[in-house]
Amino acid sequence: MHISGPIAALTAAAALTCSMSAPTDGTLAAAAKLDWRPCVQGSPYDCATAKVPLDYADPGGRAIELAVVKRKATSPGRRIGTLFFNPGGPGGPGTVQMPQLYDNFPREVRERFDIVSWDPRGIGSSTAVNCFAGPADAKAWEARKPAGFPVGEQERETWIAAYRDLARRCHERDPELLRHVSTAETARDLDRLRQAVGERQLSYLGISYGTYLGATYAGLFPGNIRAMVLDSNVDPRAWTGDKSRPLRLPTFLRMGSDRSAAAVLERFLTLCGSTDTAHCAFSAGSPQATRGKFDRLMLRLRERPVGGWTYGRTAGDAISSLYAVHPGWTDLAGRLQELWLGRAPQPAAPPPAPPVREPEPYLGEEQAGAVLCSDSPNPRDPGVYHALEEASARRTGDAGRFWTWAAEPCASWPAVAADRYRGPWDKPTAHPVLVVGTTYDPATPYWGAQAMATALAHARLLTHDGYGHTALVNPSSCVKAHVSRYLIGGSLPPAGTRCRQDGTPFSEPRPVGGLATGGGGTAVTGAP
Fold this sequence. Notes:
The protein is of the alpha/beta class and 528 residues long. It has helices at 94-101, 107-112, 135-144, 153-173, 175-178, 183-196, 209-220, 236-240, 251-255, 257-273, 287-303, 311-320, 328-340, 365-375, 385-396, 398-405, 446-455, 477-489, and strands at 37-38, 45-53, 63-71, 81-86, 113-118, 202-207, 225-231, 433-440, 459-467, 498-500.
C-alpha cells in the first residue's frame, strides 16, 4: 500500500553485507511471547505486543516492541494455521491496513487461516522512528516543503533543505534505531512471530514492498517456508542496486516505477477518453483529446495553481490515485475535472478507521524513509536529482518527475542499515513461491514480478491482466481462486496462467466465477 509522502511512494547472488554475527536461521532467537486480547471492546480483532532485540547481533541488548494484530479463522474447525500479511510501503502499518483490507482476502483463506499482521520495527504503533517533538512540529515541517515534488529552482532548494533538516532531526533523536530498521531485521522479527504463534513453517502474503520482505525471508530462512504469495513485486536486484544496473539511478528509477506509472497514466487517459463523462468526468470525447486536455491542465497549473493544487501536487496525486481502480480512477477523474473548471477539489477521503488499539498512529515520512534510505542505495548528492528528473521526464513525463524526487530524501539520510541482506535470492525453499504480477501497475512494474520469479529458486508467476497496484486491492476472482488453492493445498497454477481483472475501469465490476462456485474466474493458461 502507498503511504503518503514522497519517501514512501512505495509499497542472483549479490554479496551478503549483513552483520555476520547476526543469526540467519533463528537458532539464537527465542520466540516472542504474545498475550492476545481484544483490540477494543467488541472488536473482531485481537492485539498483542511482542518484544524483540533491536540488534540481533546483540540479543541481550536493547529491546523494542512490535504491535501485532490477529483476525481468527472464521471456520475454526477447519483451521489450517496462521497466515502472516505485510501491506508494503515501506512503512505500511499492518495493524491498521490488514483490518482495512481484510474483506479483500479470499473467503476460503479467511475461513481456514488466522490472519496476522504487525507494524514493522520503526513504524506506527511499534517502536517507531519519530523525529519531531509533537504533531504541531511535524505539521510545521510538512508545510515548509512543496507538495508532490518540487518545480523550479526555488522549490528544489526548499525541498532539499527540508529533508536535510529532517535527517538532522532524526539523527539527533535516536541514531541507534535508525541503523536497525532494515528489511533483514524485519524478516528476523517475522520469524520470531512465526515461532510465537506455534507455526513450524511460515505461510505469508506480502504486497508491494512486502514482496521484497518475503524474498529476504526466503533468503534467510529458506527451510521455513510453507507457502508464500508475493503480489506486485519489487525486483530484489533493483532494490539492492545490483552491479549489473547503473547505481547512479535512485531506487524507483532502477525499479522502473517511472516507466510503469507513465504507461498506466496513458491507459487511464485512453480509457477515460473512450467513454462519456457519465463514467469518466474528465473525458474530452476521445483518447487523444483527453490526453491533450490533461497536458494543458498540467501546463496551466504550472503557471496558475488552483488553491493549494499546484502542478507538483496534482501530478503526484494523479500517480498515487492510479493504485486502486475502484473508486480511485473515478475519483481522480472528478478531481481533474474540478481543476479544469478552476475549482479546488476536496482531497481523497481516507479509509474508515478499523476497530484496533491505535487506528490512526503517527506515520511520518521519516518512518518509510528510515527503511528505504538505510536499506537501498541512492545517489548522495542532492544536486544530481534535477538532471535525473529531466532525463526521466523526457521518457515518462510527469511520472518521471514524481518517482525521481520520491527517493531524493535519501541523499541526506544519516544512517546505513547495520544488517542489510543483498542475496543470494536463489536458495532452494522448502516449498515453491507464488508470484503475482499485474500488467499495468503504477508502482511495481510487471517486469518486477518476472524478475522476482526468475531470481527465486522455486517460483511460479501468475499474471494478472489488469490495472492498479496489487491484485489484492484490485481484485480478480481468478487470482483469488489460484491464491486460495495454493495457500490451502499447495497447488500452483499451471505455468503461463493469466487472469483477468474483475470489471474494467469506469464501469461497475461484473460478477465472475470463483473457487466457491466451482469456477476459476477467467483463467487463461499458456506456455511459460
